[in-house]
Amino acid sequence: MADNFDFAALAKSWQQQPVAQETPPGEADLARASQRQREQKWLMFGEWLGALVMVAAACWLVLTMPDALGYLAAAFLALGAASTFYISWQVHRPILAYDNWSSSGLLQFRHRACQLSLRYYRYTQLSCVALLLFTSALWLLRWWQPATASVELLMFYSLIVSPLCMFGIYRLQQKARRKAAELAHLAKLAADFNFFGVDS
Amino acid sequence: MISGSNNSQSAIDFVLQLWQQHQGAISRTLLANEADPAARQDLKQDIFLALHQAAHRLRQAELPRAYMFRIVHNVTVDHIARAQRHKWQPLDDDVQQQLLDDCPSEQLGETQQSQQLMQAVRCLSAANRQVILLAMEDLDAPEIADILQISHGAIRVRLNRAKTELMELMQHGR
Hints:
The structure holds two protein chains of two kinds. Chain A is built from five helices and no strands. Chain A has helices at residues 7-16, 27-64, 68-92, 103-144, 151-193. In chain A, helix 3 (68-92) runs antiparallel to helix 4 (103-144). The radius of gyration of chain A is 25 Å and the shape is elongated. Chain B is mainly α. In chain B, 79% of the residues lie in helices and 0% in strands. Chain B has helices at 2-21, 23-33, 37-53, 55-60, 64-82, 94-102, 108-123, 126-136, 141-148, 152-171. Classes of the chains: A mainly alpha, B mainly alpha. At the A-B interface, helix 1, helix 2, helix 4 and helix 5 of A face helix 1, helix 2, helix 3, helix 5 and helix 6 of B.
């Protein structure tokens, strides 16, 4: 069907079409694009800083609460820090050498990064739910008194941690919904660029 | 420090020279992939930065034109991949309308045909649009294979499918 198509004439027409004169780029364009790339890096560094705070909190817990509960909380925080660090690197690292990629590979990379991001949102939501459950467990301990939970700890988790967790679950749900739409868009594009399985 | 600055300036000059040589093809690629002028400006800046960062390798490339197009198309594909976040709208374009308005009446037919072609190219799937754009800029199959990093056989199949889709779009006047 495509063989009957006068593609050469079409290509000629394409090349001869009037296009609005784009001003050639200059140093100002380079500076603006570099600025965008730097912003992406700063976002990554900001998240790494968050991961470091989590590591510091884990160390503090190990030193101040050297018991099973303290170790468990520290392990939970360390796991959170490691996953934040890894996901942030995967999602925000700028691509510096576009010439080393094929379009298909680039899209697969973006698709994987988006999948990771979505999983990270879901796991973080689950962590927030776990903290809400922990707060409930503290209240149960206080009511039934099989063990003691200090009032300060109870107030800290009830008045600060729990509201933040609920807000976090809500915000993460919004982000996850957007990310899911982005993932569907990327999956479609990646499949389109997979060249129908003929690119080997 | 001075040497670094000189290197950077020399890289900018080299990329600008390459850009000017292929300005028409780059402009058409930008127009075919991004209708929004502000987003197109961002895309242009990102392409320029990517070319600048690859200037050293571009200089040493066996086929500098193909090497440049690989970067241009990869940055464009990355832009399309992120377009979901930016609410990409491929079909509205005041610039093309402005061209029609400014066009002398004797060239109006050709301009309308060009605009129809541009609209059809924009309606192609992103992968088909990529291969059609390269073919319409007179790049041959080995060059396209080098740009897209896929085999010649795959290029033939893809180009054939892309041409069929383009023909259908043009026949249906989309």
